[in-house]
Amino acid sequence: MSTLNETHDITLTSWVESANSDCTDFPIQNLPFASFRNAGTNGSFRGGVAIGDQILDLESVADAGIFEGLAQEAVAVCVLEDLNEFMSMGTEAWSALRLALSRALREGSVHQEQLEYTLISQADAEFKLPCRITDYTDFYTSVHHASAVGALFRPDNPLLPNYKWVPIGYHGRASSIGVSGQSFPRPCGQTKAPDADIPSFGPAKRLDYEVEMGIYIGKGNALGDAIDIEQAEDHVFGLCLFNDWSARDIQAWEYQPLGPFLAKNFASTVSPWIVTTEALAPFRGNFSRDSEDPQPLPYLTSAQNTDAGSFDVALECLIQTAGSDVENHLSTSNFKYSYWTVAQMVTHHTVNGCNLQAGDLLGTGTQSGPEASEAGSLLELTNGGKQPITLSNGESRTFIEDGDTVIMRGYCQRDGAVRIGFGEVTSSVTPSRLTR
User: Three-state SS for 56?
Assistant: First the structure.
């Protein structure tokens, strides 16, 4: 588990002036990673680090040769368009490079003159997925979401008996995950109305978003080896924002007996920046369970997970409808409400010997809070579509309509630490391509 070090010093400022703003997501205490290139060019994507409203081009940093030892070895592989090799190097390399970058970007750095020319405005960049997402698993870690959705689908038995004992997840489709800005057609599939004798085929009518966090695996494990919870976070490179799109009417018809399929595999969207677990060290909190709930089994329990297993990440979801430039607020929530921790998800995923690889993505599942205003999906906000919500621009929604853009943002803020953010993830739905 990452601990506080000099990179978290709240007195640090950068020679990149925009990084010193109180409202930036990317102060020098953050330094998240992405894969980018200059917008509108055919140039190669390569690794970059966000600093204020700029991107530090890691290919240029590598070429400058200003770092030494492990930090230079690490930045040398960040010239590649995918960050998998860097992610696979492990915590020592990640921390060494982050420290070198922090020192190079600080006010008074001897490297300022060399690095100023390597900066590119984020407004002038385009992004791809930060790594090859080798595999994708989606968990179901919000007990508030699970209870609310269960009540809609199974009023007499909303929370299944295994939920509080085992981190529930399913294996999703990595190929349809896109980076922020993703646009996709409305999915088609089978649905069955409650009063219908047979199912019908066509575009989904109950398209929904899910406010989630994404967890990127760094160093993997060998097939057959389980990752102990004490070492679980040594295998986690960082976190991102994640919108796991869902077709609720397709889901309701297909999900029994084997769970999600076409309702979930048509599109999912990640934010471009990976915020490292080291950057998130000041925003850790204790993990505990209500005394009346089952306590995690021993393999899902450790002192450090109890002391600091949760992440305090505030989440916000907004919608922009077609033809409007108004961002309509939908809900806020927080990752700290998660019923299972990141370490528990990693450990449970491998307890049977499953091998994780650098670039694997774990979704947390919809992150809903205890209050109705903290619901992470329209399914919850509209009570299964029975209660439309009125947007600030006067329109109403039960589910997502063609032309809608969903925007999610996240940040960490607490006394004694500098606020850091994740940027945003946006994605839009276009009309179905169904021709018959």
Answer: strand
Cβ atoms of 430 and 402 within 8 Å: the answer is: yes
Closest Cα partner for 207 from 242, 169, 243, 172? Answer: 243
- Hey, what amino acid is at 250? I
Active-site residue list: 145
- Whole-structure pTM value: 0.97
Question: What is residue 6's predicted lDDT score, i.e. its pLDDT?
Answer: 97
Q: Do residues 250 and 231 touch, judged by C-beta distance below 8 A?
A: no
Q: Which CATH architecture has domain 6-128?
A: Roll (2.30)
Can you give the pLDDT at residue 153? 79
| Helix ranges (DSSP H) in 48-90 | 58-64, 69-77, 84-87
Amino acid 262: pLDDT: 95
CA distance 271 to 291: 36
**CATH superfamily for domain 136-430:** Fumarylacetoacetase-like, C-terminal domain (3.90.850.10)
Q: Which helix (H) or strand (E) holds 145?
A: helix 143-153
Angle between helices 91-105 and 69-77 (to 10 degrees): 100
Q: Identify the helix (H) or strand (E) that includes residue 237.
A: strand 236-244
Cβ count within 10 A of residue 359: 25
pLDDT computed for residue 436 by the predictor: 61
> Residue ranges of the chain with pLDDT lower than 70?
436
Closest CA to 130 of 174, 179, 175, 95: 179
Cis before 257 (ω within 30)? yes
Q: Running DSSP on this structure, what letter comes out for residue 106? A: B
Rounded Cα gap, residues 234 and 220, in angstroms = 10
What tokens appear for 236 in the block?
Answer: 């986690």
Q: Where are the domains of the chain?
A: 6-128, 136-430
